[in-house]
Amino acid sequence: MTPAPIAVALDAPDLETAAHWASLVTPHVSTVKVGLELYLRYGPEVIASVRGASGVQVFLDLKLHDIPNTVAGAARAVARLKPAILTVHAAGGPAMIGAAVEALPATKIAAVTVLTSLSEADLERIGVAGPPDAAVRRLAVMAVGAGAQALVCSPREVAAVRAEVGPDITLITPGVRPAGAESQDQARVATPERAFADGADLLVIGRPITGSADPGATAAGIAAALRRTLADSGRGV
Question: Helices (H), strands (E): how many in the chain?
Answer without folding.
Answer: 11, 8
